[in-house]
UniProtKB/TrEMBL annotation:
Protein name: 2566_t:CDS:1
Organism whose genome encodes this protein: Paraglomus occultum
UniProt-listed InterPro entries: F-box-like_dom_sf (IPR036047), F-box_dom (IPR001810), LRR_dom_sf (IPR032675)
Domain F-box: 1-47
Pfam families: F-box-like
């Protein structure tokens, strides 16, 4: 029988079911093949988030993604003492449907599936890189430890393949001043500038270069940003860059400083000056220096 609705329209209709109503979506894929092709991408938008507290779900998730790997990738893992179980080719390329990527959740799912394998971080980095290069609609990206991707040039890959991120969380960015850390800051600045309209940004562990990151946010996303959070960042920077921040983030709804130092009341006034929205600032662990 000829489908009554084009697949694209059916997909748009099913989006209104709700991201967390997985049961309804799972039942809907059984209606027919047409519905299945339209709904499967919705079910696989954020699987690591849906299974993060579900041990059984995490154990089922990783084998599906392993089946999607190319033969050379499977051989690479096997050669590095990470055996891949035999499996049938998947009906869909589930990797391409991911829209929410959190590398900590990926590693957690792998650890649950294969607790005894010490090479699980190797698989995690391979999958994260594969998601970045093969997911065309990535909207939210959480990098828990940027330091571990220094050799894979992950920031350049994100900049190359994605320009429509809405949420960007990057942690453990710099630990000390060196050429490597400076390269990470430059790469992150380029990544921020390459995006069209970021809505939420979390930057954590910036001990060098916070001024460059702030100015890149101001240059490209002063109107789109709704939430900004800084964790464990050093704001002791030279120059009067905070004057440029004044009144820049016109639609900001949440500004959060957590565990930062080098701040003073004058700097904070620059952040909030001229803003129409009410800003919540968490002072619980902020060390305010003298004005």
């Amino acid at each position: 029988m000829t489908p009554t609705l084009p697949q694209e329209i059916l997909t748009e209709v099913m989006k209104h079911v709700g991201e967390n109503d997985l049961m309804t979506l799972q039942r809907s894929i059984l209606v027919c093949r047409h519905w299945c092709r339209a709904i499967v991408p919705l079910l696989w938008r954020k699987p690591f988030h849906h299974t993060h507290r579900n041990t059984a779900g995490k154990r089922k998730l990783i084998p599906v993604y392993l089946a999607c790997l190319k033969e050379e990738e499977k051989k690479y893992l096997t050669a590095n003492d990470f055996p891949i179980p035999n499996s049938k080719p998947p009906l869909f390329n589930y990797i391409t449907y991911l829209q929410w990527l959190n590398d900590f959740y990926v590693l957690d799912a792998i650890s649950t599936w294969s607790r005894k394998n010490r090479k699980r971080r190797l698989l995690s980095q391979l999958l994260v890189n594969k998601f970045i290069t093969e997911c065309p609609k990535l909207r939210s990206l959480h990098i828990h430890t940027l330091q571990q991707y220094r050799e894979s040039d992950i920031l350049s890959k994100i900049t190359l393949y994605h320009t429509t991120l809405e949420v960007l969380h990057v942690k453990e960015i710099t630990r000390f001043v060196s050429e490597t850390e400076n390269d990470l800051i430059v790469g992150l600045v380029n990544l921020i500038k390459s995006q069209r309209a970021l809505k939420e940004v979390v930057l954590a562990g910036v001990l060098n270069g916070i001024d460059k990151l702030v100015l890149s946010l101001r240059a490209k996303h002063s109107r789109s940003l709704k939430k900004i959070k800084f964790e464990d960042c050093d704001f002791r920077v030279k120059g009067e860059i905070w004057d440029l921040v004044s009144g820049s983030f016109v639609n900001l709804e949440l500004l959060n400083f957590y565990g930062c130092y080098g701040l003073n009341t004058s700097t904070l006034k620059m952040w909030t000056k001229g803003l129409k929205a009410q800003i919540h600032i968490d002072f619980s662990t902020v060390e305010l220096s003298a004005t």
